Each structure stands twice: as structure tokens, then as C-alpha cells.
Amino acid sequence: MVQFNSKQVWKSIVGDQGPQWESWAQDFVDRYPDVLRDIELIKRFEEKGRAGMYPSRVGIVFFTTNTGQNLPVGIMVSHHEGDGVFLYHKDYLASDGIALSARMPKREEPIALFPKLGMEREPNMMTFIANRGTESWNAFLQAISLGQIYPDDMVELQKEQAQKKKDQHSPKLRHVYSDYAEFQRLLTFGRDIPGAFWVMDIDLDPEVERKHNEAVHRAATAGRNVLSGAQPKLSGICTKNNNYYPARFDEITRMVQPSTHIFKIGSRESKNQPTIIAEFLAMEATRALIPDDEVEEGKIVELTLSNDMKIPALALTRFDRLPNGGRRHFTEMTELLGLTSENKYEGSYWYMAKVLNPEGEIKGPRYEQTKLLFRRIVAGLMVGNFDNHFKNFAVFNDTRTLTPNYDIQATDMFGGKKTALWIKDNRVEDQNILSATLVRLGVEMGITFEDMRTIFDAFKKVLPAAEERVKNAKIDEHIIEESAVDPIRKELGDNIAARFQKWERRCDFNSAIDAAKKEWGARAQNGIDILPPFKAPLYRQFAPERLGAEKLILSKSGQEPYDGIPNEIFSNVASASR
User: Fold this and answer.
1) Candidates 3.30.40, 2.60.120, 1.10.1070, 3.30.420; correct CATH number of 329-546?
2) What is the C-alpha R_g of the chain?
3) Distance, CA of 158 to CA of 226 (rounded, Å)
4) How many CB atoms lie within 10 A of CB 307?
5) Residues 128-140: pLDDT tens digits?
């Protein structure tokens, strides 16, 4: 019989279902003996640390509803020779619970994650593992805890990742990001992953817990200024007394305290934190630029480490965690598009518009979400956020609406001045963005010309409010001195209006819209020179008689990397508890 070492934890999660799931886990072993032919390795894991490079592991996947109920979903298994598989539980299949991922549909047959099982590997299965797991800084901390790398490797591997292309990475770095290493980390550290799904490792290892807590403290006290996915982030907790501290691994794994915040930390100089200052001010500016939108809640706080040392951090309230202990599930655009984290810069902004509005409608709720996405992209560029890649946009699964706006970084202040994704057919340098460039982006995303006119007029009117918001944003001087904030406050505030003026240096937005409307209207009426993904909204505006005449949206076998998102991941989350 499979021995679950954490009986009390298990019972607190599944209640009376515990014995049933122990029996079912054994049934899985009996049905698929090749997957766990040496299941005893799991029992010996605490004693020997690792069984070769890849110890066998078993994890149960759960879903937490928005009322706080934990529903067992299925079992994930990794084998020491490099196999991996996921299997839904029959009770979850019979429920109206949502699918684990757009690329992991509900079905009775096991889903192969790796090819050694005698089953063909499923396409895009890594999209769940790679997108729900961690990347860069946190991935290295977890790799240290599991013995995948040594603590002294971390700094050099970070530098290598930042400076070298993927095909030039060393074997050690390739190992950290190998499919199986990522799977191992998800099984071990999957309790607190984004969204409402999570993974319980049935064999908690105290040594891994100890190593991880030590690695977090060591890395936090030696923080460094980094950008993009390499930015140091920690899950953490805010107490009732407003004391902020990183969540200990054992608190999360033993369900003592769920994390309430994500903390971003900057440089080791305690009074000079340019990256977190710039991000906080960019968030405040965005609130003024899109006043009817929701930006994630955040403020700069003192983060208390394990030795009572305090460092400045940007505390971001988790929008996927609810006050009653429930969770609200969301999915990032990378996963919806079938991409992994390493592909988050590969593609065009309009790919996301097709996820939100696949039929190219020009009115209704899906179109309104597409308009909001367009406004977020433009506002991001206005505050200098040139790191708006696919992972920085996500959709709530219960409403098919965008999550609050998050990861709003003024990267232009630190050297990043090229769009993260493509407009037309390439990434665009900041200096080359004009009004016509952004109108072209609107066309690609299916925004009507009249709505573009309204959007850019509205941006122009709120520029003073955005500058004022940056000027008056409160940062506690006891945490970061105003002398460190003032230069960033001035630069970011000045850049917002200056960038909008620069966009209009050749022609204003109304003129650019008029020219584009004339050009694209003629194309639509003649039915020529329009890529299929852009046809539907243009035909709806200029040639509605053409709508039924041809296939307007290409499948994945054509030119467009989008083949529709299964409805079963968008079932009502609340209904999963019924």
C-alpha cells in the first residue's frame, strides 16, 4: 500500500475522503505498474535524498473552490527514469469541475507528460507545468532545495540566463529548465501555485523544507536589481498587525497559512530600490490612465526576514486568493495559447485578442474585453512598460474576463525599450512607435476606428491626472528615503506626456485613424490584402455581406497559432462545489 506520510495534513484537506483516495492511489499503481515499478523509492526519499537524478514522486492535484472547498482532481506521478503521467479521478470527471488546463482535457485515459511510458507524449502538456511552476529566481531557489543545483551556482546561472541565448546555455542551466526538472519542482512546491489548482506531494521531505527556507533567506538578503522574469519574487503573508514576511515552505506545505501576497524585492541597498519604486509608480500612473479598470493592489512595505532583518519590498495582494480561504482560478495567455514560459515573447499582441474575441465581434462583452486589453497595452507603453509579454495578461476562468492589470514595470528606465510582442510583423523600438503604429495595432486586434478615436482622445485628457498621481503617490520615508524616490518620480511623470507627444510627432491620432480607415475600408470592400485573422472585424465595419462568404479565422494548421479554447476550462468555478 502507498504510505502517505502526512496523515493529518491529508485529512485536513480531504476529510473523510482520505481512505478512499489512498485506495484509489494504490489502484493507479496496480493499473500502471511500469510507472511506479519501484514505488519504494518514494518511501526512501527522506532517508537518501535522491534516487539518481530523478526520484519517483507522487502528487495529488486539488482544486479549491471560491467557497474554500478542496476537491481532489487527479494524480500526478513522476518516475525516477524520467516518465511522467497525470490521471483524472473518476469522481472529478463526473462533476462539473473545470479541466486542469486547456491542453489537459477531462478524460478517463491517462495523459502522458513524458515519452517513456509506452504512451505517446501529449502535445502541449508542458504548458501547464511550465506556466504554473516558477521561473528564473524562484526556479533556482527550488532547484537548490531539491539538489538539482548547488547554492553557489545560482548567481552564475542567473547571469548566463540573462546574457546568453537558449541554444548557448550550459548543461547545468539546461538541466534546471528540462521538462522533468520542472515537473519535479511542481510536484514538490505546487501547494501555492497561481490559480485554484494545486499539488500535494504525498511524501513531504523535511530536508527539502529546511533547504528551501535557507535558500529564500540567503537570496533575499543578497538581492540584486534584475528585470523581467528574473525579478526576485516571494510568496508571503501579511498578518493582522500588518507584519509582512516571506511564507515558510512548511507553512504552505502543511496548510498552516496560505500566502496572501507576492513580494518583489530589489537591490541589497536598503534605501535605494529603483525597480520596486518604478513599478509602484507605474501602477499608480496606470490607475489614472485607465480609471475604469482594476489594477492589482500594491504598496511598498518592510519585509521581515527570518533573522528579523527588514528590507523594502513591493507587496502585491494576490487576486486569486479570497478572504474566506477560497481561490479564484485564472489562466495566463501563455497557457491559453499553448506556449511555455520560455516562449512568452514569441508572437503578436493580436493573438490575445483572438483568445478573448475569436469571432471578431465589434460589440458585446467579448469585444469590450478586447478593447480593455488594447487600452492596457497602450497605457503600458505610455508608462514605459516594454515587458508586456504573454504571461503578463490572464483571464479568470469563471467569467472569461481579464484579471486585474498586473506586472506593470517601467522597464524603459532600466534599458528595455522595445515592445515585448510584435506589431505588424516585428517588435518595435520605442523611438519608432508613432500614432500610425498604434492604430495598426488596433486594426490587428479588431478595434473599430471610432472606438480607437474615443480611446486615444480619452488618454490625452487624462495625461495630467496620471502625472499628478505619480507626483502624489505615497511611499513611507521610513522605508525608502524620498531622495531615492524623487528622481524616479520626476522621470516617470515627465515620460508619460512626452511619450504621447512623441507618438503624434508626424501626425495626430485622429489623422492616423482617418488614413487607416480609408485604407482598410477599401481593402475590406474589395476583399483583398487582408490576413484572415483580421477580416471579421473589418468586414463587420465595411463589408458585412462578406462575413459568410469565407472562413475568417484560421485554425492552428494555418497561419494563426490559435485553435480555440475548450469551453470546459471556462465552466463556472463556483459550480464545481455543487
Assistant:
1) 1.10.1070
2) 25
3) 10
4) 7
5) 787 887 776 677 7
